[in-house]
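Lecture notes, part 5. Sequence design as translation. It can be helpful to think of inverse folding as translation between two languages: the language of shapes and the language of residues. The source text, in structure tokens, appears below.
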């Protein structure tokens, strides 16, 4: 604690797992078989310099005792080779005490919980990405659930890209799980000096998502949803993507799903389109950083009704920014 009796530092170890239960087929599902993740979070509250030293007098609380600045160091048994360092700063609050906004700087690096490094070569981490998100929260409902906010996002992996994501109309089921929202995301080109050049890139994509009450499993994981997508890059084209049968590993990684995508070009335009493509994906594995190492897609399309495509992807490696370096793609069309 600090001299004012406020918490300075703590460690939070959380273990999430499924209980033993009998499923709809009258089979006993054993404890830990569907979910078994331990997450360790070490929080330091305050303002710190570039060397990690606490700046004297900067407690990380405002004069109302509300937390304004902290650093979380997070490790998970699901990604044993990854350490996430989340620096939260400039947290402000509305008069009713609900959060108004903040800046989050998230560094994800290939460092194990014991501090040992996973490197591609001496001194070069296998993964090292920093993402900065500045959030302004517009609204909450009467239950204190967030219903609208705007994020401005930049990443060290894509230094010339800035994304502004406006989330609105967020609704919830009676159990508190999300029911739906509208996501309007605009990607623009950012110059090295931070100025914006919309002549080089300026694309807005609007996604309306609907999640049914049965679109979650008993662990609260999303198993199905429908997205309706429009983009300024393809005016008049509407994409409806229905995801179903999403299954997860005990570490909460996606294992498989069905994606039915329908692309329709507005009939009032000269160019018309109405194509439905179905993709069944089975994911073969993930590395210790949580990156996918392989998957198999089985694809059919109404555009080619007598053809089926099986695509086997084996991803050999990623670069330090989390982008694919090498992969092998075996595609069988028949």
């Amino acid at each position: 604690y600090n001299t004012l009796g406020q918490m300075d530092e703590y460690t939070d170890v959380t273990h999430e797992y499924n209980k033993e239960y009998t499923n709809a087929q009258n089979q006993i599902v054993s404890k830990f078989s569907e979910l078994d993740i331990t997450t360790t979070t070490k929080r330091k509250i305050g303002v710190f310099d570039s060397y990690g030293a606490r700046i004297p007098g900067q407690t990380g609380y405002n004069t109302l005792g509300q937390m304004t600045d902290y650093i979380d160091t997070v490790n998970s048994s699901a990604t044993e080779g990854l350490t996430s360092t989340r620096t939260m700063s400039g947290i402000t609050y509305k008069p009713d005490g609900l959060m108004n906004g903040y800046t989050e700087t998230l560094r994800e690096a290939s460092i194990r919980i014991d501090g040992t490094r996973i490197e591609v070569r001496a001194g070069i981490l296998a993964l090292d990405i920093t993402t900065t998100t500045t959030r302004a929260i517009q609204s909450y409902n009467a239950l204190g659930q967030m219903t609208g906010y705007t994020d401005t996002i930049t990443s060290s992996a894509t230094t010339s890209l800035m994304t502004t994501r406006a989330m609105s109309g967020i609704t919830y089921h009676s159990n508190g799980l999300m029911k739906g929202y509208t996501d309007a995301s605009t990607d623009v080109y950012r110059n090295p000096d931070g100025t914006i050049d919309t002549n080089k890139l300026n694309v807005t994509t609007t996604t309306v998502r609907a999640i049914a009450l049965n679109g979650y499993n008993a662990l609260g994981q999303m198993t199905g949803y429908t997205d309706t997508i429009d983009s300024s890059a393809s005016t008049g084209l509407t994409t409806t993507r229905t995801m179903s049968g999403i299954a997860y590993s005990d570490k909460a990684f996606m294992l498989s799903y069905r994606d039915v995508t329908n692309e329709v070009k507005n009939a009032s335009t000269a160019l018309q389109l109405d194509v439905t493509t179905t993709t069944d994906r089975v994911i073969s594995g993930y590395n210790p950083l949580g990156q996918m190492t392989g998957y198999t897609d089985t694809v059919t399309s109404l555009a080619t009704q007598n053809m089926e495509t099986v695509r086997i992807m084996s991803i050999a490696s990623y670069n330090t920014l989390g982008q694919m370096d090498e992969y092998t793609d075996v595609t069988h069309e028949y």
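The translated text above is only one of many valid answers, since several sequences can fold into similar shapes. The longest strand covers residues 79-93.
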